[in-house]
Amino acid sequence: MASRSRYVLQRVLRGLSAHTVCYHSSVLRSWQRRLLWKPQVRHLSCSDTLCLSDPPTTGPSSLSLRSHTCGELTLHHLGEKVTLCGWVQYLRQDLFVILRDFSGQTQILIPQEESASHLKAVLCNLTVESVIKVTGTVIRRPVGQENKGMATGEIEILAEDLEVFNLCQKLPFEVKDFVKKSEILRMQYRYLDLRSAQMQRNLRLRSQLVMKMREYLCNVHGFVDVETPTLFKRTPGGAQEFVVPSREPGRFYSLPQSPQQFKQLLMVAGIDRYFQMARCYRDEGSKPDRQPEFTQVDIEMSFVDAAGIMSLVEGLLQYSWPAEKGPITVPFQTMTYEGAMRDYGVDKPDTRFNMKLIDVSEVFLSTEIDFLRSVLSQPEGSVQAIKVTSAAKLFTGKDLEKLKQTAKTCFGQEVSMVLVKQDGTLKSPLKKLLSVSAADELLKRTGAEPGDLLLLAAGPLHTVRPLLGNLRLQCAELLEFHGISVRSPSAFHFLWVVDFPLFLPSEQEPGQLESAHHPFTAPLPEDTQLLYTEPHKVRGQHYDLVLNGCEIGGGSIRIHKASEQLHVLKNILKEDPNLLSHLLEALDSGAPPHGGIALGLDRLVSIMVGAPSIRDVIAFPKSSRGTDLMSCAPSLVSEEELKHYHISVKWPAGCGQNEEGK
Questions:
Q1: At CA 497, angle to CA 495 and CA 500, rounded to 5?
Q2: Mean per-residue pLDDT for 571-577?
């Protein structure tokens, strides 16, 4: 009988891993010493399994085959009989199995008694990442064998019963956090990558954050969660949209960039306070660290002003912020768009470090340098500088060359460098062109000291500021590379940026204006009349929320009068108002004043957990090219299927239907 059992066991381990293997140790009653094949794991009785204490009715192990998770057992559970389910993380010297689930790891002690030889054989023949259920008794680890690096490191489980749900075959990579995997491999086998402890933590923190946000909005402030359509029509302005064919010839849906129009229509409908965790879509090509589909916390309120929306968001983040990340202080700092550009060169400044832009134009008013004289004679001409503390001592020639190349290739500009040597003298091509008094004044205005580096750029303000704003961030990275702490990863600096221009010059059509935010943003009340005379001077009731130099939210008070909205669309943006006839008609039907905001959930969570990419906080993201490497989406559709939509594919030269999957 024993030899037959061993033969059946070998058959199971070799080729029948799709079935459930159940083995009970001979330590138990004789009728439990059986090897069972079962096509399912649900038991309607415990007639052939261990009878344990009442299972938990709530928590992560309720309604489950397990009694506890792998990360919760401690010395308080000594002597208890428990059941754990999970994945085999390690097998150690035929003595231990480390079992893992989402909550952590537990050490399973393999029995060494002769009477448990069959159980030992099964445990020792498991493969890493096999899925099992183990029942046993919680015992204390021997003195000196405790593992302080594990939450369960003071105990282990003496195995008495085992079910093998699935034997794992060879994997493309080890599921261990310290094993480096390429981004492509992680995306291709995402279901394996998601098993890692870090990805588990990221997704669970995201889930908890969303739950708290819903609780705050619904229970504290009376918001209504409303789902809006995914299939819609093209929205004027904004990002490129995905189109979806319909069965009507020549007619296409668009996937919404955001539920902007719907949430405004809900305010007209009297919903008063709306939110949803909205799926949004933008066809932005291969922009780095962007996703064609993403999630935003979408909010809209009636009878509110900008201050009300900003206070709501501050309260929302304070309420839902994970306790382990430390408290956040409200109200957040507020800065105007002009102030951000003046001091930091960008409209989403990272305020964790200083290194502000400094206007040194006056130092060069009487300069003999022809180029600078020419620049300063222009209406917007300016000379700006940033001081990089200790960079003259730390930066290598390669570092300095990298900064110059960034200025040249990304901005088409030159940047001048002044290194302050330890004796206080200057090292720079500008030195021989500067008078002694001008050099002293430059050091005085910038506060430069021995060992510091000055970066100077001259030109129109709208080009010089973004250049130095970019170099400021690059210098912070270089300082950190050389061991200087500049931006604390555990610091969270929130910032509101307000008073944006309502319109900006169009990059595609010179002489035309385009919306800085979107065409539905209302002007500041004091600038409303400028809409009809000098629209390029109008400031909008638009507010951005910035966290550590990343924009995580943006919103505005909306135009709620149809006549004003029609003027913006038709006369300023030159858009066809017929595309928004439904919205214009709604605004003429008794629309209340309203405003809202959208928070980028993916970006917010990625900053919270310190992830290098938003892909690390999304379960199934797309690659930087917008493809799903796991399923090879997007995929080809046959000509026969396309006939239903009255469309055909015009293949570019050198491409064809054999290109799928590349």
A1: 170
A2: 93
